């Protein structure tokens, strides 16, 4: 389901009363319901959520970590996932059937995940099989829809995270000669390059034009990158790097590997969200950093480390717009609906899709 489809679907619209309540009223109701429901309610919050929401999270983390935590909270009957659609899908796949997952606002999608649809992937796979025969293992970033995870699982592949992508790509190359990496070309390119695969042995599949873009002999291609990207991290540029180097020569630059290859290559450090957080946590007082990742998280890190000089690598950066769909009115609505026995916005992955998607997830979890 694309963001457009999600927004157009016939789903409940938030009642007007919630948009008319002030922050104190909303906060009171959230706290009241959380206390009343106790351990039967679990509220995971992704790092990119804004402060007004993340303050209520029972756990903070990345998408896979939060899905796993949801499954491990055995008493939790209701999981209100403060993140985006694909994250809630993963939680639904990993949790028990009697645990229900809800997304406070169904408009909270992910542009990257929507850049690879099931039909596009099936077409691409057929064309690539014609060219490369049965020599490809598909891998998908966890930032993908359940349908894409299912496709990958069905064809012997696995999911990856930004933390374990190197390990999973090594695993894939022990299976077959080539990999297809969905849906983020930048994470795939940066990881493969770190493993010693030259850029000329990487090609890009354009799902819109349905063509494979490559520089050298097609027989030398080892990594096929899906032409997708994170709309947030692609906004960090080489010009941003040069600005920091020229104006803050002693400042270290740390970025997420969803940034472009040029940006990553010019940075001092690159790694997952957890890597960025831990690096700053362990940095000495007085150190200075420019961080290339989502703005809500950067602002939170700045607030948590007043003894360090920290800026966003791109000073004009905006928070992730779809993450910001989750707000106090929607969270309160979601909780009150459950309290009233009329829950809204449940995320249910079709069981047939979930079976193969879980295979892709488990192949990764068994190796990391």
Per-chain topology:
Blueprint: H1 3-8, H2 16-20, H3 23-37, E1 41-42, E2 44-46, H4 51-54, E3 59-61, H5 63-72, E4 78-80, H6 85-94, E5 100-102, H7 118-132, E6 136-141, H8 146-154, E7 158-160, H9 165-175, E8 178-182, H10 185-194, E9 202-206, E10 211-213, E11 223-226, H11 238-247, E12 252-255, H12 261-266, E13 269-270, H13 273-282, E14 288-292, H14 295-304, E15 309-312, H15 328-339, H16 351-365
Task: Provide a descriptive summary of the structure in words.
- This protein has 368 residues and is α/β, with parallel strands linked by helices.
- The chain has three domains: 3-110 and 322-349, NadA-like (Rossmann fold, 3-Layer(aba) Sandwich); 113-230, Rossmann fold, CATH 3.40.50; 233-312, Rossmann fold, CATH 3.40.50.
- Helix content is 43%, strand content 15%.
- It is built from 16 helices and 15 strands.
- The chain has helices at residues 3-8, 16-20, 23-37, 51-54, 63-72, 85-94, 118-132, 146-154, 165-175, 185-194, 238-247, 261-266, 273-282, 295-304, 328-339, 351-365; strands at 41-42, 44-46, 59-61, 78-80, 100-102, 136-141, 158-160, 178-182, 202-206, 211-213, 223-226, 252-255, 269-270, 288-292, 309-312.
- The strands form four sheets. It has a six-stranded mixed sheet with strand order 7-6-8-11-9-10, with helices on both faces. Strands 13-12-14-15 form a four-stranded parallel sheet, covered by helices on one side.
- Strand 12 (252-255), helix 12 (261-266) and strand 13 form a beta-alpha-beta unit.
- Helix 3 packs parallel to helix 15 (328-339), helix 5 (63-72) packs parallel to helix 6 and helix 8 packs across helix 16 (351-365).
- The two termini are 29 Å apart.
- The model has no long low-confidence stretch (mean pLDDT 95).
């Amino acid at each position: 389901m694309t963001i457009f489809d999600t927004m157009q679907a016939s789903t409940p619209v938030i009642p007007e009363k919630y948009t008319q309540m002030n922050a104190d009223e909303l906060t009171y109701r959230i706290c009241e319901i959380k206390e009343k429901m106790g351990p039967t309610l679990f509220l995971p919050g992704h790092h990119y959520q804004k402060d007004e929401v993340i303050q209520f999270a029972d756990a903070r983390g990345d998408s896979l970590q939060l899905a796993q935590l949801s499954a491990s909270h055995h008493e939790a009957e209701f999981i209100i996932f403060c993140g985006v659609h694909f994250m809630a899908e993963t939680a639904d796949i990993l949790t028990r059937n009697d645990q229900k997952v809800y997304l406070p606002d169904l408009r909270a999608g992910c542009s990257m995940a929507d850049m690879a649809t099931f039909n596009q992937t099936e077409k691409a796979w057929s064309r690539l099989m014609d060219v490369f025969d049965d020599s490809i293992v598909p891998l998908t970033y966890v930032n993908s829809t359940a349908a894409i995870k299912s496709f990958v699982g069905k064809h012997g592949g696995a999911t990856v995270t930004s933390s374990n992508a190197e390990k999973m790509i090594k695993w894939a190359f022990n299976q077959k000669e080539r990999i297809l990496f969905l849906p983020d070309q930048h994470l795939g390119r940066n990881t493969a390059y770190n493993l010693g695969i030259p850029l000329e042995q990487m090609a890009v599949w354009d799902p819109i034009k349905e063509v494979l873009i490559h520089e050298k002999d097609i027989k030398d291609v080892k990594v096929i990158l899906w032409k997708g990207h994170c709309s947030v991290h692609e906004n960090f540029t080489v010009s941003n790097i040069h600005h920091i180097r020229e104006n803050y020569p002693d400042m270290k630059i740390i970025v997420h590997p969803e940034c472009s290859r040029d940006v990553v290559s010019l940075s001092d450090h690159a790694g997952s969200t957890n890597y960025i957080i831990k690096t700053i946590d362990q940095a000495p007082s007085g150190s200075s950093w420019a961080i290339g990742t989502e703005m809500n998280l950067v602002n939170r890190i700045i607030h948590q480390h007043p003894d360090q000089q920290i800026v966003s690598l791109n000073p004009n950066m905006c928070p992730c717009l779809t993450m910001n769909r989750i707000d106090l009115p929607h969270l309160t609505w979601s909780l009150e609906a459950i309290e009233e026995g009329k829950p809204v916005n449940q995320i249910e992955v079709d069981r047939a899709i979930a079976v193969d998607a879980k295979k892709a997830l488990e192949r990764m979890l068994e190796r990391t």
